[in-house]
User: Fold this.
Amino acid sequence: MDLSEVNALITGGSSGIGKATAQAIIEGGGKAVIAARNTDRLETAAEQIGATAVPCDVQKESEVIDLVEKTVRELDDYNVLINNAGYGEFSKLVNLPATEMENQLKTNTIGAMMVARESAKHFIKKDYGNIINVSSSAGKKGFEGGTAYVASKFAMSGMTECWRAELRPHNIRVMQINPSEVQTRFSENAGQGQRAFNETKLIADDIAQTICSMLSLADRGFITETSVWATNPK
Assistant:
């Protein structure tokens, strides 16, 4: 599809990969609704890039249902979901509270499922749509301290495969992108502090460009999954 035909809902859209992707779509002639929990940051981002802001906590089913309904009303031809909302907190197994595990699964896994479920209902009616799940290199390989986050991202990979099998007969492309470390607010939000910018590591625009390339492929084909790594991080 051409980017000018994209009418996208992007969760986690107030900063980082979500905001950069929305901006790239809008600059390509498309439209975007961005969603996030922090209303002030969300509205500021929307004003900066020309998107429509719809506050939403993807852990809350009623808010997710309302989000997709508002998106359908706002975008006359809603046809792309970028499932990007997520966060990480890291603890070794012996120190991992069940509540921390539960909260990450609620946002990264169950939240993604609910937004996809409501979007898929609309896409099936139209017999067309696109879903891109933003996972992580952590969804391909585990690491020390990553139990909760890694589990949530491995689960996303499994869900992506299930949705692809279910939705292909309805001309819905289900794709996944696995970025390695991207310099966003992720580290800060994870309680690991702000890190100095490193020009050898990935930035949000790199992932936004890749997502737009995946969408831009002619509708007769789709890229099931791709990973993006820094070439030579130092």
